[in-house]
Amino acid sequence: MPSMWSECRTRSPFAPRTRDDRHAHRGGGSANSTAADRTAGANAIEASTRVPDGAGDDRPGNLRPRCVRPACWRWVDASGSGLCPRGRHAARAHDDTSNGERVTVMWVLPDMRDSVLDRAFLGFGASHPSTRMDVGLISYMTGAPPRLDDLRHIVEASLDRLPVLTHRLGGPASSARWEPTPDFRLDRHVVEAIAESPGRDGVAETAHRLLEQPLPPDTPWQLWLVSSPSQDCYGLYYRVHHAWQDGVAIAQMLLAIFSPMASEERPPPCPTEHWALRGVRAMTMATRILGEVLQPAARGPVSGWHLSGHRRVTTAAAPLAPLRDVARACGGTVNDVHLAAVSGAIRAWSLEIGRQPAPVAVTVPINLRNPQERPGWGNYCLVRRVWLPCEEEEPLRRLSRTVIATAGLKSAQDRQAARDMLFTAPSFLVRFGTHCILNPRYAPVVASNVPCDDAGMVASMGITDMVPLTLLPPGHPFNVCLTTFGDTAQIAVISDKAVPFADRLPLLWREAVDELTTAMSDGAAGR
User: Fold this and answer.
1) Is the confidence at residue 381, as pLDDT, over 70?
2) For labeling, which of 29, 98, 120, 225 is most exposed (least CB within 10 Å)?
3) Is the Cα dihedral 36, 37, 42, 43 positive or negative?
4) 8-state DSSP, 416
5) 182 pLDDT exceeds 70?
6) Domain 4-21+122-263 belongs in CATH node 3.50.50.60
7) Gap between the Cα atoms of 256 and 235, Å rounded
8) In angstroms, rounded to a whole number, what is the distance separating the alpha carbons of residues 340 and 388?
9) Which residues touch 55 (CB under 8 Å, ≥6 apart)?
10) Residue 159 near residue 26, CB atoms below 8 Å
11) Within 10 Å of residue 16's Cβ, how many Cβ atoms?
12) How many CB atoms lie within 10 A of CB 527?
């Protein structure tokens, strides 16, 4: 069966456009046009599809002139009316009866909405210059590596659908806005490294060496093709400044590039509750988070280290099916099982280093994106604190207590309230909250979950490992991130090299997963 790379010139989702195709698609300009040219071309094409004011066709494809001011976008999102307060259409509402039900949906136009979290992460990096703010993902594949030109063609074909790649946050951190990157050149961002030794180990060694290097100045993202000299495997290492993307945005963006048919945009549901009720809930959510921030976590077994500031990455994998079986049996989610296993791993690690196991506070990022919105853009998440019962010896009791502790993270109503809060809160308040939440006194460990569940992409690209690389804030001894792909669940632990035996945490996590699976099976057999 041919590889994805050999098909990329004939299959329409992957085929790089010719010079004429690119010229027509972008509304004019040369194949080497700048981001500003692409933006102008897209606007020209979009303007030709607008209908005059007063026309009665409400289909999503017929767009009206609209205001793109961030304040208006926040008002539209909070009110759900679909209209800009300046009197110009910012979104269109229509009725969808395709499933036999009358459901009002809102068509969100493909413009940029800056998130206050983007500016908050930009400011956090500026105030902590020694902190590495790049996050990303390393994927390892089998088979012959593609040519660098082929990879650049595939990325170039996605630039119009992923404007985050051709834009930057311009201006001071407190008032930064998205703007086209001047003199954008793809060859500065999509680059290649040849491993010194053959095989997967050589590719991994080169990728980890690249991990130690900071992003070049004025280059907020890079996609490295790491090729093996034996031509039998390779890796793709994508890294980006956290102000540009969070973990879920990275996964969505890579899915949009390498499996574009799976990322087609559809109109998201229109909020049905009154804007005043949603505003009250957003204020309640903000008050609750502020109360958490003002209550620092007690020092536990993971605190009290003299950190070096140098990172290391260790991983472990487990079959995904047993985690799903345990999640169904306990009435929780795969992430609940993962966190319960993290709790068991921290408990075992504490005993190994001679510390008494105790409850550990972790911050859990919650994705606030609508799955039908434009992928790959910015930071749309809320971070909440969860206490892991690391002092609990019995694995099933650890699991049940973890499910109870995370129950408040799963409410659709709370997610909507958090989303409203994100789009309406003053920037200074979000910056203050971000600095407090990333302080180890709030929670010394970040526990993330970045699913990459597109089976077609995994199969076509021959992916064997995916290593998510999340932010390690200053003062944090380690962080933990789960990713799922195909039939595999993989954990990556980024730890400070000064923390003893932290590289054993992934192996201890795998043992805790096996322990939970066995305990659940024995319990079911006993019934």
Assistant:
1) yes
2) 98
3) positive
4) H
5) yes
6) no
7) 18
8) 7
9) 62
10) no
11) 16
12) 4
Round to whole Å and give the CA distance between 148 and 69: 38
What does the chain come to in residues? 527
Q: Estimate to the nearest angstrom the gap between the alpha carbon of 522 and the chain centroid.
A: 36
Short-list 105, 41, 44, 108, CA closest to 72: 108
pLDDT(456) > 80: no
Helix (H) or strand (E) holding 321: helix 320-330
Buried b / exposed e along 367-379 (16+ C-beta atoms within 10 A)? bbbbeebbbbbbb
User: Which of 383, 339, 344 shows the shortest CA–CA distance to 364?
Assistant: 383
Q: Which long-range contacts (CB under 8 A, 24 or more apart) does 195-201 make?
A: 195/226, 195/227, 195/228, 195/229, 196/229, 197/229, 198/228, 198/229, 198/230, 198/232, 199/228, 199/230, 199/232, 199/233, 200/140, 200/228, 200/233, 200/464
Looking at the chain, which residues constitute the CATH 3.30.559.10 domain(s)? 4-21+122-263
Angle between helices 412-424 and 116-127 (to 10 degrees): 70
Burial of 175 (0-12, 13-18, 19+ CB in 10 A): exposed
